[in-house]
Here is the input.
Amino acid sequence: MQIRVPNQPLRSVEADLAVLGIPGEDALEATLRAADPDHADDWLAAARAEEFKAKAGTALALPSFGRWKAPRILLVGTGEGSAQDLRLAAGKAGFEARNRGASTVALALGELDEAAATEVIVAFGTGNYRFDRYKAEDQRKAAAGTLLLVGGPDGDPAVARAILAGVTLARDLVNEPAAEIYPETLAARAEELAGDGLTVEVWDADRIREAGMGGITAVGQGSAKPARFIHMTWKPEGEPRARLALVGKGVTFDAGGLSLKPSSGMQTMRCDMAGGAAVIGAMRAIRDLRPDVEVHGIVGAVENMNAADSYKLGDILHMYNGKRVEIHNTDAEGRLVLADCLAYASELGVDAVVDAATLTGACVVALGDHYSGLFTDDDALAGKLEAAAEAAGEYLWRMPLPDWYKEQLKAEWGDIKNVGSRWGGAITAALFLREFVDGPAWAHVDIAGPAFLEKPWRHFAAGGTGALVPTLVRWITGA
Ligand code: BES
Ligand code: MN
Ligand code: ZN
Here is the structure.
């Protein structure tokens, strides 16, 4: 998507759709008069007849009758003009533009500074996204090719462009069926990003086993699609200001293994690589933004299947850090994959590691569909991630990590069981992961709720959301 700042008033901008932000019902008349002094009474009458209240994120479409350069006008409410209101408005504009197949969109949401423009562009692109490549051609609508940001700041919106590209990549990877994105193809998509200072190393299943990654090996062995271990590295030119690692759960399909899921629970389990997709999407943005921070992006990619070779209940896995895990449920597979990745990340000499995973249904029970759970012992890291999420408009909620809940993971034969009791399942999963981190500060983000939408919500289409990409990019780049 091209982004430009025109220097004409909205009504004179050549576009398929002209979007005018209205900061609340009281501002309707004044805003319309400023936008089009000659015809404001007509627009106002139409808006009143349709009972348009200009609440943030609501919209009213009107024909322009040739009075404006664009054939169609969209009024969108921008509420109080907070960052969140602007996101809702821009997102709605993107969503409606896509419904109409508008390829050039002029968007006027008031005077925007750089920070506000970033949010507006990312939200517009997010709302404009649809995964329709498997729809019949005549059922598809064009995405916006050009965004003309009236009232935007000068300069290249590099941060917005990078975040949006990362989010879009993550959504595509999640939305693709598991028949298309499996460990090998996920790794290939990561490898495509190599260059411009980003390196990508991929290990095959033999190499993973030889390295001693018993968790990834066990979960992956029941699938005809062999596991892959992906290690992406961004190294800045000078001495890095910090060294960080991102770790993602890349379960490209989670059938549950022998602890088989019911069909209802399995339906959307192509989304179980969303943490890995978030890491790959964030690394893409980091490659584009070139921060003076060393960043490692690590993804354990496997398919958790039910087959003759599947790992079994009662198995004892020998993990990368030497610990032995006693298997009590093969559907608690993500933590086994992450455990090896976290132990590996611990060897890289990084200051901090953050993992992202669609780890537990329990986290969705606790926080609902739109909050991710944040688990860490490190208050400073928690504060930074919370601030990054706030700046990015994502919902992150810190959860407790009580040491004494570890009681639930006590094993009879190994060092630790892979599941606790039913209660507090998101917490015991996080406590399990902590056992595999040695050295760096660590935070775990359970994105099981926000990573995938069963139906559209706000300006998000159903499916993958790119959850956590904006937060991770902001955390790392300080953007
Ligand atoms: N991938 C699932 C968690 C999940 C559930 C993600 C719903 C997104 C939506 C994970 O591998 C899993 O199966 N977790 C189990 C853990 C249990 C066996 C301890 C769960 O949540 O039921
Ligand atoms: Mn599972
Ligand atoms: Zn899973």
In short: The mean pLDDT is 98.
